[in-house]
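Handoff note, outgoing to incoming analyst
You'll be picking up this chain. Sequence as last confirmed:
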Amino acid sequence: MAYLDTREGFAGAAPVFASSIPAVFERQEWEIIVLARHDGLASLQEPGRLARAMAWLFGGTIDRRLASPRLEALRRLAVLAWHHGYQAPVSAMKAFKAEGFSADQLELLLASVATSRSQLASR
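Most recent structure output, in case you need it:
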């Protein structure tokens, strides 16, 4: 199992524009963005009846949603950005803004994820 040390900042997944644009996300929000890279698109859907039954029978968790609606909107957009880049659905962007995030934060999230995706692809 991999270990992500978040005490010293993010290597490779940190906001690329940190020197030119002030950080507008809190540390916890950056952690959610980085960890969303490992969430699949299925984590955005409600667990079905069978999945709930299997989790009940065999134990385990099936619901990846965060308790805070604000942070969940951030996680959902980050998951979509990791999978689709700038082509994330407009509905996710609207939900992101509805939770109080700004257009600058939206831009920063999409640009940082896109840059990190291209760095990971070139490895």
